[in-house]
Amino acid sequence: MALIAPSVPIPAEHQTSLRLGVLASGSGSNFEAVVAACRRGDLRAEVVSLVVNNPDCGATVRAGRLGVPCTVINHRHFVSREALDEALIAHFTPLAVDLLVMAGWMRIVSPLLCRSFRDRMVNIHPALLPAFRGTRAIERALAAGVTITGCTAHLVEEVVDGGRILCQAAVVVQPDDTPASLAPRIHAVEHRILPSAIALAGQLLTRAEA
Ligand code: GRF
Questions:
Q1: I need a labelling partner for 113 at 20 to 30 A (CA). Which of 73, 85, 172, 187 fits?
Q2: CA distance 133 to 14
């Protein structure tokens, strides 16, 4: 069972049209959910570029299947976080993206990227923030014995997994849950709230610019 808030997504006709850049490190299921929401017309946006830091990750395979341009910017080739983030800024700026979506981007971003994309970066996290910030959030929530957990989509600020919360969804933990049984239920609701959060971030941007 999952509870989503806000329960009413912004109708497409009231959304700002957005160009999106997506960052992913892993399987890319959230990336695919965003592309699917765009193509269904639920999210008035286009994913113009996917960047991955792991050349062989699942997200690259999905990008090939979906026909989304994919670029590898491998963090192992950079001397610092700032140098990696400079490369990201140099990649995304000419593409004129409105928002960057961190869809399982397993790198801590530097203040440089935060400043360049202030209010224009969205992250998805597999816990009900501000609880269980950081890595292994699903395992840590289970170990803490919570009976309700979930996921959060939020704006990215310089504090890891901090920043204004855009959407959250709650997932009930079953007594016999393991990380392997709970994770797919959390991922399923991530796929629902991330497109809504992107639409909301776009709307906040438009209001700020008005
Ligand atoms: C998601 O659980 C997300 O919350 C976390 O990384 C995972 C990425 O999964 N930040 P996927 O690559 O989108 O399948």
A1: 187
A2: 32
Compute, in angstroms, the gap from residue 74 CA to the centroid of ligand 1.
18
**6-31 average pLDDT score:** 87
79 Cα: distance to centroid of ligand 1 (angstroms): 25
Catalytic residue status for 14: no
Q: Which numbered atom of ligand 1 lies nearest the CA of 32?
A: 13
Amino acid at the residue 52: V
pLDDT band at 11 (very low <50, low <70, confident <90, very high): confident
- 3-state DSSP of the chain: CEEEECCCCCCHHHCCCEEEEEEECCCCHHHHHHHHHHHHCCCCEEEEEEEECCCCCHHHHHHHHHCCCEEECCHHHCCCHHHHHHHHHHHHHHHCCCEEEECCCCCCCCHHHHHHCCCCEEEEECCCCCCCCCCCHHHHHHHHCCCEEEEEEEECCCCCCCCCEEEEEEEECCCCCCHHHHHHHHHHHHHHHHHHHHHHHHHHHHHHHC
Query: Of 125, 154, 187, 191, which is the active-site residue?
Result: 125
Question: Distance, CA 184 to ligand 1 centroid (Å)?
Answer: 10
Cβ(123)–Cβ(163) below 8 Å: yes
- pLDDT (0 to 100) of residue 2: 56
Q: Per-residue pLDDT tens for 93-138?
A: 999 999 999 999 999 999 999 999 999 999 999 999 999 999 999 9
